[in-house]
Design brief:
The chain is an all-alpha fold. Helix content is 75%, strand content 1%. α6 packs antiparallel against α7.
C-alpha cells in the first residue's frame, strides 16, 4: 500500500504542473493578437454613434495602459494566473456577468452527463471486450465487432438526431432537455440543490419523481455520447485479451483445473485492463468535447451553450479563454481518476514508476 500512496501523490502533484503548462500555452496563443486588437474586446458593446476615430484610439490606448496589454508575456501571464487563483476570471460582455459565475452555473448539466456516460461505457466496454476477445471468431465476437464498427463510424451528433427521431418524435419515450418538471426550486421551496445534479438531488430531497424524470431525459444523450467510447474501449480490451489468452500463465492456470471464469476475470482481465484504461484516459479530452456536442443536440443548457453564445453574440475573449481553462480543469480530474484506477489494478505499473 505504501507504493500505491506514493503513486497517488505523484499523480496528484502532476495536476498543477500540467495545468501551468496548458494555461501558459493558451495564454500565449491569446497574446499572438496585437495589444490594440485585444484592447478592442474591452470596449462597450454599443459605442456612441458620433464617436470619432481619434476618440476611439484614445479609448483603446487607455485600455492598453490600464490592463497592461503591452507588458512582457511573463508579467501578463503571472497577473492573469493570479486572478484565476483568486476567482477573478474576467468579465463577459455577452452575458454581462463574471466568467467564473457563468461557467459554474452551467457545470452541473455537463458534469451529470459526463458522469453517467463514464459509468456506462467503461464497465460495458471492458465486459464486451473481454467476452469478445476470449472467444475470437465466435458469434458474440462477430456481433461485438459489428456494433463497434457502427459505434465508431456514426458521429455522435448524427446518432443523437437519429435517436431523437425514433424515441422522441416517433415513440414519445425520451424527450430532450433536462427535465419536464419546470422550476423545481421555485415551485417547491423545500427542494434544495445539494449537488446541482438532478438525479442525486431528487433522491436527497425525497423527490424520486425528479430523479426518474431526470434519468428519463438522460437516456438518449448518455447513450449517444457513450457509444463511440464504448466501441473504442471494447476494441482495445478485445485486442489485449487475444494477446493475453495465449500467454503461459493462462495455460498454467487452466492446467491447474481453475474454472474458466476464474482464469478470465481474475488472471487475464487484470493484465488486459491497464492498456484499456490507458486508451480511455488518453481520450478524456474527447469525452468532454463530445459532451458539448451532445448538449447542443439534446437542448441541454450546459457549458456548450456558454461557448456558443460567446462565439455568436459579441467577441468575448474572457469567456472563451475561461471556457478553455475550465475545460482543462474538467479533463484533468478524469485523467487522474482513471490513472489511479490503472495503478490500483496493476501493481506493476506503480512499482515501475516508483522505481521499485
Amino acid at each position: 500500500m505504501t507504493s500505491f500512496w506514493k503513486f497517488l501523490g505523484q499523480r496528484l502533484l502532476a495536476i498543477p504542473v500540467t495545468l501551468l503548462i496548458i494555461t501558459a500555452v493558451l495564454f500565449a496563443i491569446v497574446l499572438q493578437a496585437p495589444a490594440e486588437e485585444r484592447a478592442s474586446l474591452y470596449l462597450p458593446p454599443r459605442l456612441p454613434s458620433r464617436i470619432t476615430a481619434e476618440d476611439l484610439q484614445r479609448m483603446i490606448d487607455r485600455i492598453v495602459a490600464e490592463q497592461g496589454l503591452d507588458d512582457p508575456f511573463i508579467v501578463q501571464y503571472s497577473r492573469w494566473l493570479s486572478r484565476l487563483v483568486r476567482g477573478d476570471w474576467g468579465y463577459s460582455p455577452s452575458y454581462n456577468d463574471e466568467v467564473l459565475a457563468i461557467l459554474t452555473r452551467h457545470t452541473s448539466v455537463t458534469l451529470e452527463l459526463t458522469l453517467y456516460s463514464l459509468l456506462l461505457f467503461i464497465p460495458m466496454g471492458l465486459i464486451a471486450g473481454v467476452i469478445s476477445g476470449w472467444q475470437p471468431g465466435s458469434r458474440k465476437d462477430n456481433q461485438f465487432r459489428l456494433l463497434a464498427f457502427i459505434g465508431t463510424a456514426v458521429p455522435p451528433f448524427i446518432l443523437g438526431l437519429f435517436l431523437l427521431s425514433i424515441f422522441y418524435v416517433g415513440l414519445h419515450w425520451f424527450p430532450p432537455g433536462r427535465s419536464d418538471i419546470v422550476d423545481i426550486r421555485l415551485s417547491n421551496s423545500t427542494f434544495v440543490a445539494y449537488t446541482g445534479l438532478l438525479t442525486v438531488d431528487g433522491v436527497l430531497n425525497g423527490r424520486f419523481d425528479v430523479t426518474l424524470d431526470a434519468l428519463r431525459h438522460l437516456v438518449l444523450p448518455v447513450f449517444a455520447l457513450s457509444l463511440a467510447h464504448w466501441a473504442t474501449l471494447g476494441r482495445v480490451t478485445r485486442a489485449t485479451m487475444i494477446e493475453q489468452k495465449d500467454r503461459e500463465y493462462v495455460y498454467s492456470a487452466q492446467a491447474k483445473g481453475l474454472k474458466t471464469r476464474t482464469v478470465v476475470w481474475r488472471h487475464t482481465f487484470r493484465n488486459a485492463v491497464t492498456p484499456a484504461l490507458t486508451s480511455t484516459m488518453l481520450s478524456a479530452a474527447t469525452i468532454i468535447s463530445g459532451v458539448f456536442v451532445i448538449e447542443a443536440v439534446f437542448n441541454l443548457n450546459g457549458l456548450s451553450q456558454v461557448v456558443i453564445r460567446g462565439m455568436t453574440d459579441v467577441p468575448d475573449a474572457p469567456l472563451a479563454l475561461g471556457f478553455a481553462v475550465y475545460s482543462v480543469l474538467l479533463v484533468l480530474p478524469i485523467m487522474w481518476v482513471l490513472d489511479i484506477v490503472r495503478g490500483f489494478a496493476d501493481p506493476r505499473l506503480r512499482e515501475r514508476e516508483n522505481g521499485e
